[in-house]
Amino acid sequence: MAIDFTPQRWEQLRNTYRDWWTGRLTRPLVAVELYHRDPGRPMPAAPLLSQATCADLLIPADAIVDRLDWELSRRVYLGDAYPLCSMDCFGPGVMAAFLGARLDNSSGRVWFHPTRNLPITELHLEYDPDNPLLRRIKELCAAMMKRWQGQVLVSMTDLGGNLDVLSTFRPSDGLLLDLYDHPDEVTRVLGEAHSLWHRFFNEINAILQPQNPGYSAWCNIYSDLPYYMLQCDFSYMIGPEMFRKFALPELAASTRRLDHAFYHLDGKGQLPHLDAILSLDHLAGVQWVPGDGAPPCPQWPEVYERILAAGKKTQIIGPSPFQDVFNLLQRTGIGTGVHYRPWSSVMTDESAIRPWLDRFASADFKHAAES
Fold it and tell me: What backbone torsions phi and psi does residue 262 show, to the nearest 5 degrees?
């Protein structure tokens, strides 16, 4: 059985998301995937591509894509969801591996480690066209384009944030000390990382486009123009002054090179940087993730109010129930500019979910807040 998404639905989805990016869509986007469809054939023998299996480069690319096709054929796409193959399975910050770091997935999750711990003064990031992981990702992207012929959107792999990648090569407190002891060297290497990041981004997109039906990242927001979810998890460990000096200029440069750029605000330790992030003229939106052990997204209305008040879009992502997110939108008056993606791996009850999609589509959140 084929993947359940027609060309007509793709065209409708493109138009909906275009309206969302331009601010013409007055309702929130709600993207829900269910996993209860019969794929109509046995599960292929190849393992599912994941962080636990990504380092096995001997599995034929076509076999991996066939297994992914089977998985996507199991899904039902409701609301503003669409068939997406997320390439985040190579781990967050995979650009570090492109630059020579060692990928370790022995725990089932991907981590990156330097092969040599060089001082920042001797560290130079260089492009290697024969890097095996870069070649593997390009090989998989080509196989996916051949197999799906534009029916499935293949996301950009999780390249990572440039200061995060740099911290891989200066582990422990090395990069933190470098900010004080060698600020000019940090700026130099960060410039190398910035140039290489966009080179990798463009090279992978050159394989995906023009057949790929759009652009996306690990967060599943759709765009018909080049887009990415930028991040700087390293900023959790530095104050606003250091953030504005080392992180913000590179982020600003990247937002100018992307048509639609979001920022991944991960954990309350990044909240001191929110005003600086919102000051970026070319930044389209901010995804807020409270982090492990923190209250879930709907319990942070003040964060969403700050983001929306700055004229940015936002994404609500995670296990929060429909009712809680609906209440958040009513309380804050947020309708336009919100993308809500609940975790969906355990969802099976389509009849219970469809009324919620209708409710999100028809509610006047702004009026509810004012009243």
Answer: -110, 165
